Amino acid sequence: MDADVERGIVQAIPALRRYAYGLTGNWEAADDLAQDCLERAMRKSHQWRRHGSIKAWLYQIMYRQFLNRQRLARPRYAETEPDELAAPSSWATSQEQHMACDDVISALQALPERQRAAMFLVSVEGYSYDEVASMLSVPIGTVRSRLARARESMRSMLPHKGRTAQLRRVK
Amino acid sequence: MTRDRDETGRSGAALSRDVVDACAYVDGIMDNSPQEKAAFEERLRLNTDLQDLVTAYRKQNERMQDAFAPLLHKSVPESLYFRVERHADMRRVFSLRSGAVAAALMAICIGVGWAGARHLQSGNPLVHEILGTIENRATLAAILSAPEGGEMTALSVRMENAVPEARLKAMGLTEIERSVQTIGGQPALIIDYRTAEGGTATLMVQQRDADTVKAPSTFVREDDFSASVWTGDTIVYTLISPTESHMDIKALTQRIRGGAAPQPVPVPQPSGPTSDLPTMAGDMPEDRILAGQSDIPVVPDVEAPTADTPAAPPIPEPNAQSL
C-alpha cells in the first residue's frame, strides 16, 4: 500500500467514525464498524484506483459492511439504544444545545437504515446526489426519494425551532 | 429489518413533488439547472406552504450539522490507527530484501500474535479455542448435515461427527474468504462460501453473552434468511445469506435434507427428540420452543423476503472506479 493511500485512510478515520456513529447511533457499535471497514479497506486497497475521494470509497465500504452487519447481528443491534452522548460539555456548550443534538441524532436513528445513510451523507457531509447514489450503489432517483422521505419523517419528529432555542422571560 | 421500498415505488405514502423539489432546492441540486431553479423559485414565491417546507429543511440541515460537526473532533481510539499501521507494516515487510525479511517477519509475527490475542480476548477461553482452531468447513458441514427428522434436529451440531470433505464438495460449497471481525464487541469468525447456485452463504461463529443472558437455554432458529444454532456453551452459529439471494439458505438446507420441501413446524411426539442427536432445547421442553410457547425471548427475525418486501438487492463490492 502506498504511503499516500495509507495517509488518506488515516486522515479519513475521524470522519469514518462519525459516519459509523451516524449509522449506528452507538459509539461501541460505531467503533466495531469502523474497525471492520478499515480491515476490509486495507485488504482491498489494491482496488483503490485513485479516482475520486478515498473517503467516499471508504464510506461505500462502510455502508456495505453496515448493511451486512445489520443482517448478521440483528438481535444485538435491535437491542442497542443510542448512546447517552458522552461528555456533552466537550462538544455542546449548553444543556439546551446538547438536548437539541440528542433530538436530532435520535430522530436520525429512527429512520430506516437506507434513509439514514442518505440523510447523513447529504445533510452532514454535503455530498451531491450523484455522489451519494454512487456510494450507496443505487440510482439517483432512489437517493431523491430516500432523502425526501427521510426529511419528511424528521420534520414530523423534530419540532421546528430556531438554531438556538429562544428563552422566554418569566416574571 | 426496516426497509424502505422506494426502488419499487410501492412504499406507503406517495411523495409529493413539492417535497422532492424542496429537497433538491435546499441541497443545491437545482444550482446546476438554472431554469428548473427559476421555475421552482416562482412557485416558492406564490406558495407559503412550500416556503415553510424549504425553511424546515434548511433548519434540518443546520441542526444536523450542529449535532455532528463536533463529533469530528472526538478522540479516536488508538486501535483504529493501529489497524491501519499494522497492515501497512506487514506490506512493507514483504517488500524488503532478503536479510531484513526474517527479522522483520519475526517482529510482525509477534505483533500480529499480540494483536490477535488481544483481539480474541472476550472472557471465555472456549471462544478462543473455537475461533483459533475450528475447522470451519467441518463446522459448516456439521451444521448442515444433521439428519432429517424435523425442524428441531435438522440443524443440530455434532462437532465430533463432521461430515467428510467429499460431502461438503458434493454440497457444492466453495470457501471464498474467511476473517475475524468484531461484531457487537465480540470476535466473530466469518466465512463466506459460494453455493452451487452461484449465490453466497456466510457462516458466522460467535459467542454472544448478551443473547445467552436473555436465552439461557439453547434453541434453533431458522427462516428464509438464516439458520442459527445456539449451543449450551454460548457459541452461536449463524448461517446466513448476506448477498444475492436470501433463498440460498433455504435451498441449501433443503438440499441437505434430501430436497424435501420445507415442512411446517412439526408437533413433536411426547416421547422426546426425533433423532439420536442431543436435543438443542437443553432443559427446555422441546415442544414449547417449537410451538413458540417458550419463555425464551423470541429473537427478532431478520426480515425475510415476501411478496411485499422483495429481497434486498445484492450489495456489490465497492468499486473504487465508480467514485
Helix/strand/pairing category of chain B: alpha+beta
> Can you identify the CATH class of the largest domain in chain A?
Mainly Alpha
Round the Cα radius of gyration of chain A to an integer and report it: 17 Å
- Multimeric organization: heterodimer
The CATH topology of the largest domain in chain A turns out to be Rna Polymerase Sigma Factor, Chain: A
Shape of chain A: globular
Topology, number of strands of chain A: 0
Major sheet description of chain A? none
Percent in strands of chain B: 5-15%
How helix-rich are the residues of chain A, as a percent range? 55-70%
Low-confidence stretches of chain A: 75-93, 162-171
| CATH-derived architecture of the largest domain in chain A | Orthogonal Bundle
Please give the domain count of chain A.
Answer: 2
Report the CATH superfamily of the largest domain in chain A. Answer: RNA polymerase sigma factor, region 2, helix turn helix motif
Please state the average pLDDT score of chain A: 77
What is the beta-strand fraction of chain A?
under 5%
What's the helix count of chain B? 12
Q: How far apart lie the N and C ends of chain B?
A: 28 Å
Helical coverage of chain B, percent range: 40-55%
